[in-house]
Amino acid sequence: SCKNLKKNVLNKNLFNNKKNKISYYNYDERKKILESCRYVDLVIEENSWEQKIRDVQELKIDIFVMGDDWNGKFDFLKEYCDVIYLPRTKGVSSTMTRTHLDNIKNK
Question: What is the pLDDT of residue 20?
Answer without folding.
Answer: 61
